Amino acid sequence: MRALTIRLPQVPDFAPLDAYDHDLLREIYRRMVLIRQFELKVNELFLQGVMPGTIHLSLGQEASAVGACLALEAGDVITLTHRGHGQALAKGVSADSLMAELFGKVTGCCRGKGGSLHVGDMSVGALPAIAIVGASSPIAAGMAFAFKRGETGQVALNFFGEGTANKGDWHEALNLAAIWKLPVIFLCENNLYGVSTHVTEVMAIDYVAERASAYGMPGSTIYGNDPIAVHEAVKSAADQARAGGGPALIECLTYRRGGHKRDDPGAYRPQEEVQAWLRTDPIPAYRERLLADSRFSLSAIEAIDAAVASTIDASVEFALASAAPTTESAWEHVYAD
Ligand SMILES: Cc1ncc(C[n+]2csc(CCOP(=O)(O)OP(=O)(O)O)c2C)c(N)n1
């Protein structure tokens, strides 16, 4: 058995922001803060015993979800993971419908029948999550196959964790996507742990992206706490996929700030590793970069924080005031149309 090797963050020099559009930079910040505040509120509601179910938070992983989704076109589709609140919000699922879903209400994005593990909304291109690890990769490849056959010009993006990359269905999906040159991006959020298992204990190579060459597709490993780096990588992979160049594998190195799920304090993680990664929180780092850009003032950034806080408060009120699904509705939407 391989031993755990501590892996500390390697923070690169950040690119200056002046080449980027003001509205894009602003939206990247707003969506990262939206995810952060949404999940902090969800955690608080759980601790108060107000919210049912279980949750897997993505606190600390906001940059990869937002950088990736904002690099896609509105008509492109993502598949979400069991840790999918951030991916959903990043693709445009509303905070109201996501919060209502977590409360099991009929106004939720899956009519209250999915809960935290199965969030999504196809009207914004977010396929409701499948909690079976690995199952969404062949589905993303299948959607990309349909896009290619229909010549729709759309791209599918498959979010998954590094633990998932050791499953057979994941490998099959990459192989099919490569031989058929499907317009799909496999985006790994490598947060170092599959539940309590460190990546270095279960992979004999250093990085997931090294596997790309075995399938004949480009692979890259990037610092996933920089939303701009993620945006660049996904934009270029999407352009290539749309032009018929086939799939790509992008590995975003990141870290979850908490445990695997809400009842996990994450005590298996070495403190040296935890503390080093906690210091690389993507949101304060990006906020500092915005403040160094003359187009952004402190008051403008604080106004975004305040507007997001109101959105989150309103989403809780909306969810609490919404009705539960009726018993009869259990028979609805069992089969796809
Ligand atoms: C087929 C399958 N096996 C096991 C599980 C239980 N499980 C849920 S999440 C998880 C770890 C997944 O790790 P990773 O892919 O790295 O994603 P992360 O949780 O780190 O975001 C496991 C084993 C599952 N949901 N599905």
Description of the structure:
The protein has a domain at 22-131 and 192-231 and 253-320: Rossmann fold (3-Layer(aba) Sandwich), CATH 3.40.50. Helix content is 42%, strand content 10%. It has helices at residues 22-47, 62-69, 85-91, 95-102, 136-150, 168-179, 199-202, 212-215, 227-242, 271-278, 282-291, 298-321; strands spanning 77-79, 126-127, 156-161, 184-190, 193-194, 197-198, 219-223, 248-253. A six-stranded parallel beta sheet has the order 2-1-3-4-8-7, with helices on both faces. Helix 6 links the parallel strand 3 and strand 4. Helix 2 (62-69) packs parallel to helix 9, helix 4 crosses helix 12 (298-321) and helix 5 (136-150) runs parallel beside helix 6. The chain starts with 21 loop residues before the first helix and ends in a 16-residue tail after the last helix. The mean pLDDT is 96. Bound molecules: thiamine diphosphate. Thiamine diphosphate (TPP) is lined by residues 81-83, 131-134, 160-164, 191, 193-195, 260.
Quote the distance from N terminus to C terminus: 47 Å
Tell me, rounded to a whole number, the average pLDDT. Answer: 96
Which regions contain 5 or more consecutive residues with pLDDT less than 50? Answer: none
Strand order of the largest sheet: 2-1-3-4-8-7
- Number of DSSP E strands: 8
Just name the CATH architecture of the domain at 22-131 and 192-231 and 253-320. Answer: 3-Layer(aba) Sandwich
CATH homology superfamily of the domain at 22-131 and 192-231 and 253-320: Thiamin diphosphate (ThDP)-binding fold, Pyr/PP domains
Strand count, sense and closure of the main sheet?
6 strands, parallel
Q: What percent of the residues sit in helical stretches (DSSP H or I)?
A: 40-55%
